[in-house]
Amino acid sequence: MVDNTLTEKVLLATGGYDHTIKLWHANTGVCNRSLTHLESQVNALEITPDRQLLAAAGFQHIRMYDLNSSNPNPILNYEGISKNITGVGFHEDGKWMFTCGEDCSARVWDLRSRNLQCQRIFQTNAPINSICLHPNQGELILGDQSGLLHIWDLKTDHNEQLIPEVDASILHVAIDSSANYVASVNNRGNCYLWKFNGNGTRLSPEHKMTAHKKYALHCKFSPNSTLLATSSADQTACIWKTSDFSLKQELKDEHQRWVWDTAFSNDSEHLLTASSDGVARLWNIETGNIEREYEGHQKAITALAFCDP
Amino acid sequence: MALYDNKHWLLSHIRNSFISSDDTGISEVVMGGENLLQTLFTAKCDTYPGIEDNEEEEEIAQSLDIHTEFGVRRQRSHTSVQLERLQRNMIKSANLRHIKWELTPVSLTDEEMAELFPKKDITNQKINYNSELAKLLKACPYLPQNPFREYSKYDGNTQLGEATRKYGIFITMLNLERRNYPMQVSIIATAKVHDLIGLVCWKCTIEYPDCTLKESVDCYALYIAEDDGEVDFDFPCLDSRETVAKFGFGFLALVERDSKLAPAVPNHSPTSQEGDSILCENINTKAQQQLEGELNKLLAIEAPLYQLYQVNILNKVRAKAEIHLGISGQKIELDPVVKQRSTSKFPWTKQKPATYDMDCVVACDLTETKSNNRAVFRLVYDSTALSSSSIGDSVPGQQGTAVWSNFKHHDFEAEQKLAEDIVQKINNILELRCSVRRQEYISLRERKSHRRRSFHLGPR
Questions:
Q1: pLDDT value of position A304
Q2: Of A286, B61, B94, B417, which one is least surrounded by beta carbons within 10 A?
Q3: B46 to chain A nearest CA, in Å?
């Protein structure tokens, strides 16, 4: 009925406060594996570009799990950081990993075991809540608690700062795959968008909107760059059109609580959400209906990673 | 104290007390070298086993003054348990590589930096927007809501670090071959029995896609079961509000509560749309048959349980009187319903209370079905057995002596469904008992029906 090799291509992982990470059959809603994430909640999840490893950012650690074995324990443990790690991501070829954390630092970790040439650090004056990589693989965009947006050029080590709103903590930043837009959401529910000017990295303000009435938690562009998803403590996720920044769909369910993380399917037609009610959901963006629910976590889900090649 | 009964021990204790309390050391010189036990007392002390074969303990001097940890099996200390856990974690973490954050001591030159962190040209990249998930979703667009899905989160197999309980669950709804194998279910210990039922149903829908279950957890109950799958109906089902951790049984059985509630619904497993409805219907009818068979078995099991029915007894003149019919595995009681003022005009219609031992009841059949949805059934009993208290009288050698006139009967009238139930219940009990009188009666009845086939009078 369902091709197994096809099933394995689609990877969905969720993690949260119950110290476990679950891997799901995205199409059936059945949990097929659980991984231990001892002594810490999961702040962020990311699958490596080669789809071999799952990285989980938690308190003081980034743990990596082998996706192709049945080992429930991590096989790599990146440590030596004093506080929570809030974001993790990878260079598209898997050369290095970048993280950000509450220790006011963003780091680049060389993934080659002996050669640590690429190790880099960038420090600010406030805990960093979110990090994302420019598709050109050379710049990192960071959002911190003091409300500053930094663009860190890895090649020149220069950094550019933007202050979208004074005294509003930036919770999440995102950049679209064709590098046209940068988005950030803050604790007042406001969403700011910038546009890249030509070839340069200079950003010009494009749009400001009140995406949510409460604390916004997450924002993400769709793979085809036509949509922007924002999620919030108001228990909804909203889909915005990037053409005119109008609301396309509000994804809402009576059981859903804070929505912490989202992921688009590769065709930009579905959205996955992770919520505090311990359920991850798959939404049809066009209809706004829930198509699948992933239940099994005993506590809030705060992070998800999705791979849909 | 048992310790002091042991001469062997007492002797040793005295010797050791001398040795240890004598500071001059003379006692030790005198007594230390000897092994009195072996030389003197072996013969006498052989009622105390372990003198010879426990060499090790022999070496340790026995005295209240001497304390040793080795003689007795010591409780494992907290430290050793912890050490063991540490060791286990070490083994576990042997496969875990730790990478500490460190910065390269030498700073990179601008050229090196440019080489290591080149900027990719993203102006002309081709992006593939194919979604595998969309393909999968299209492959089975029809995923009906499984009513038990919410219980899947209690599955202990997908939990780590949570206390879980494991059960072997016999699913009584399954067909015979599969019913005898328990399904292994692991559940988190804090879940309620209600959740366990839901989880069992959920696993059932996945493992046995052809088994139909009712949509609600409330339709099912968990009973204690033997390891061979026999359901223990002597005990009530587990209280669904209790937490599972309270019950330590290894085997349980999932039993349907009442077949009259809610019709069976097809199983909800991801299937493609085509041919689904036909499949569902097939499954439905199959399940129904299965269920009926199951239900009859259940009724047979429950038959000996006491139950009270309110029916009308029909007298010789077909006059009705309301009575209570109490049926249990041992006897049938007829008890007239006492009314404040007897409405009956005929005194002979009054039925006296009576009790028939199940051993003297020989048959119970439906005799008449009326158009007003009521039915008449006949209870036949052996009247001789009533007077002769022991049933042993009629057993050996008297097989042929049963006389037709000894069998008396009562006719009752009740609602058809009720009458059928009563007849079924009594027959179930009779089948269980296989009394001699019943066999006599049946053979007699057969002979009789051969003789006069054209008409039947008297108890049939």
A1: 94
A2: B94
A3: 58
C-alpha triplet A14, A16, A18: angle, nearest 5°: 115
Contact A223 B97 (CB under 8 A): no
**pLDDT at site B271:** 40
Which positions ≥6 away from B124 have C-beta within 8 Å?
A: none
Residues of A with CB below 8 A from B139's CB?
Answer: 1-3, 6, 27
Q: Name all domains of chain B by residue range, CATH numbers in brackets.
A: 2-59 (no CATH), 149-302 (3.10.20.90), 307-451 (2.30.29.30)
**C-alpha angle A253/A258/A263, rounded to 5°?**
80
What is the predicted pLDDT for the residue at A2? Answer: 41
pLDDT tier at B457, thresholds 50, 70, 90: low
Integer Cα distance of B437 and B13 in angstroms? 76
**Is this complex scored with an ipTM above 0.90?**
no
Report which secondary-structure segment, H or E, holds A35.
strand A30-36
Report the interhelical angle of B276-302 vs B416-433 (nearest 10°).
60
Cross-chain Cβ contact A266/B99 below 8 Å: no
CB B194 within 8 A of CB B217: yes
Buried b (16+ CB within 10 A) or exposed e, B9-29: bebbbebbbbbeeeeeeebee
- A292 chain-B contacts, CB cut-off 8 A: 143
Whether residues B129 and A6 touch (CB distance < 8 A) is answered with no
Share in percent of chain B as helix, strand, coil (round to 5): 40, 20, 40
Q: For residues B249 and B251, give the distance between their C-alpha atoms in angstroms, rounded to a whole number.
A: 6
Q: Do A136 and B119 touch (CB under 8 A)?
A: yes
Alpha helix positions (H), chain A: 4-9
Q: Given a cut of 90, is residue A145 above it in pLDDT?
A: yes
Q: pLDDT per residue over A201-225, tens digit each? A: 578 888 999 999 989 999 999 998 8
Q: Are B48 and B74 a contacting pair, CB within 8 Å?
A: no
Q: What are the strands of the beta sheet with B374-382, ordered from one edge? A: B354-357, B331-336, B320-327, B307-314, B407-415, B374-382, B361-369
Please tell me what DSSP assigns to residue B150. Answer: G
